[in-house]
Amino acid sequence: MQITYSPADSALYRLNPFIKGLGTLFIILLFSVTMQGLFSLFFSLVLTILLAILFKVELKPILISIEKIWLLLLLVGIIQGFSTGNFNPESLLIAVIRIIGVFVTSGIFVTISSQSELMYFWEQSFRPLNLFGFQARELALVMVISVRFLPVILGELDRIRMAQMARGARFSHGVGLKAVKSLMPLLIPTLSLAIIRAEDLALAMEARGYCVSRQRTRYNHFSIGFFDIFVCGIMLGTILAYVLQIRF
Amino acid sequence: MINCLELREIELFYKNRRIGDKISCRFEKGRVNLIVGRAGSGKSTLLRAIAGFHKEFSGKIFADDMSFDSEGRIALAFQNPENLFFNPSVGDEVCYALIQKDDKEFRQKGIAWLEKWGIEASAFWKKHPFELSGGEKRKVALSACTVLLPEVILLDEPLAGLDFQGREKLAGIISQIARDHIVIIVTHDPENLIDLTGRVLFIGDQAVEFKCVNEFIAKSLQEPDFYPLPDWYVQAMEQKPIKKHIPRLRAESVFKYLQGTAEDADYLFAG
Ligand SMILES: Nc1ncnc2c1ncn2[C@@H]1O[C@H](COP(=O)(O)OP(=O)(O)O)[C@@H](O)[C@H]1O
Ligand SMILES: [Mg+2]
C-alpha cells in the first residue's frame, strides 16, 4: 500500500500548509535530537499516533509501510546497540523508535497534504531565496513535479524489468562495472521514457500558456486561523521548555 | 515441439482481488490465436500468467495434455516493445538474449530470425534502433523479444500504433510464424488479423467465450452487444441473412458475397 494524500475533515487537515510543514519538521527534529531516554521517546511516538487517530488521519498505509524499512531499522538498531562497547538493548530500542517516529511523522504529513498544499509549502519555504535572485516558484515547481512523478517512474521501472526479463535479460549478477552493465537494459529505457515524458509535460504546459515567472492567482487561499496560532504556540513553548531545562 | 496449449479454469487475481471469470480454452499451432476484450478485462494479465510472470492465479496450464512449465519455452512481448531498446545497433538488440545465453551461433540465428520478421539483415544490422521507422522498430523489437525461438509466442497488442499498411504487413508475418509456433495475440485491431485467425478467446464483462473465428463473427453479427465489429461490415451484412459461410472482413469479399459470386477464398474458414 502506498502512502498518499487521503482527504478527511479535521482541524489538523485545515491547518495552514506552511504550519503543517513546519510542525512536521519540528516533530521530526524532536524525535531525532531529544535526549530524554527510552520511556519519553516511546511516549512521544504513542502520543503522535493517538493524535493522528484523533484527527482522523488514515494510518494504516503508514504502519504497514514500516515493514518496508525493517532492514534499516535492524542495521541502525544493531550499530547503535553496540555503540557503547558492549551490547545495550536500550540504545537499540531508542534508535529504532527514533527512526519509526521520523517515518510516521513524515507519513502523516504526506497523508494530510494535498498537491496544491505541498506546492504552497515548498513555495513559502524557498521564498527567502528570492532575496538572492532565485526563483522560489520555479524551484517549488521542480520539487512538486519530481515528487509527483516518482511513483509513475518507479512503476515503469518495474514493468520494464519484467519486460526485459521476458526477453532474456538477467539482472544482479557480477560486481562493479559488470553489475552496472547488467543494469543497462533497465536504466536506458527508463531514462529515455522519463525524458520523453518530461518533454511532453513541458510542451503541454507551454501550450496552455504556463509561465513560471508570471504572477498567478490561487485557487485555494490559505489563511492563518486560531488553531494555527495554537500549534505555533505549542512549538514555541516546547522550545522554551527545552532551553530552560538545559540552562537550569 | 508442442502442438496445443490448454488453459483449464484459469482464474486471475491481483492482490486477492479477482479479475474476470474462469477461462478455459485450447490454443493450437497453425493459425493465429486471438484474445480480445475491453481494456482492463485482464488480457495482458492472462499473457503474463501463461508466461509465468504473474503467479497469482488458480487453475492449470497443459501442453499436449502434460503439465506445462513455461521456463524457456515461451516468449512474451509486452505492449510497445520498442520502448525496451538499449543497444547501439539493431544487431546487438536482436542478439542480446542469445548472447546472454552464451549461444555461440548467435549471429546466424539472429540474422535468420530478423529476416523472418521481414527485416533485411544486411541493410539494418548496423543501424541504430532509433533511426528506424515505426513499423521497422516494431518488427525489430518483436524479433528481439522472441529470438530464443520458443515454442509459444505471446504478443501483447503487436499492431497498436501502426498505420493500416504496417498493420497488414505485420499481420501477414505473424501468421507465417504461427505455422510452426503456437502464437497467441492480444489485439484491439481484429480487422487485420481475423482472416488469419483460428480461434478467438473473448473476455467479456458477462462471460468468457472461446470460439472458432466463424462462430465468433456470427455471434457478433447476431448480438450487437457482444463484440463491436467495424460499422461498414455490420451494415453491409444486414442486407442478407447470414448463411453457413461468412465473408472475410474485406470490402471485396463482402461485395462478392452480397452479389452471390463469392468463392471459397472469400470466406472465413471454420478454425
Ligand atoms: N499492477 C497492478 N496492480 C493492481 N491491479 C492491477 C495491476 N495491473 C492491472 N491491474 C488490474 O488488472 C485488471 C486487468 O489489467 P490488464 O490485464 O492490464 O487489462 P487489459 O490488458 O485487458 O487491458 C485491471 O482491471 C486492473 O485493475
Ligand atoms: Mg493490456
What does this structure look like?
The complex is a heterodimer of chains A (248) and B (271). Chain A is mainly α and 248 residues long. Chain A has two domains: 1-113, no CATH class; 133-212, no CATH class. Chain A has helices at residues 11-14, 17-33, 38-54, 60-65, 70-81, 89-112, 115-126, 136-166, 177-207, 226-247. In chain A, helix 2 (17-33) runs antiparallel to helix 6, helix 7 crosses helix 8 (136-166) and helix 8 crosses helix 9. The termini of chain A are far apart. The model of chain A has no long low-confidence stretch (mean pLDDT 86). With 271 residues, chain B is an alpha/beta fold. Chain B folds into two domains: 4-236, Rossmann fold (3-Layer(aba) Sandwich), CATH 3.40.50; 237-271, no CATH class. Chain B contains ten helices and ten strands. In chain B, the strands form two sheets. In chain B, strands 6-7-8-3-9-10 form a six-stranded mixed beta sheet, with helices on both faces. A four-stranded antiparallel beta sheet of chain B has the order 2-1-4-5, covered by helices on one side. In chain B, helix 2 packs across helix 3 (106-116) and helix 2 packs parallel to helix 5. The radius of gyration of chain B is 19 Å and the shape is globular. The two termini of chain B are 21 Å apart. The relative contact order of chain B is 0.15. Chains A and B meet through helix 8 and helix 9 of A and strand 6 and helix 2 of B. The complex binds adenosine-5'-diphosphate and magnesium ion. Magnesium ion (MG) binds next to helix 1 of chain B. Adenosine-5'-diphosphate (ADP) is lined by residues 14, 19, 37, 39-45 of chain B.
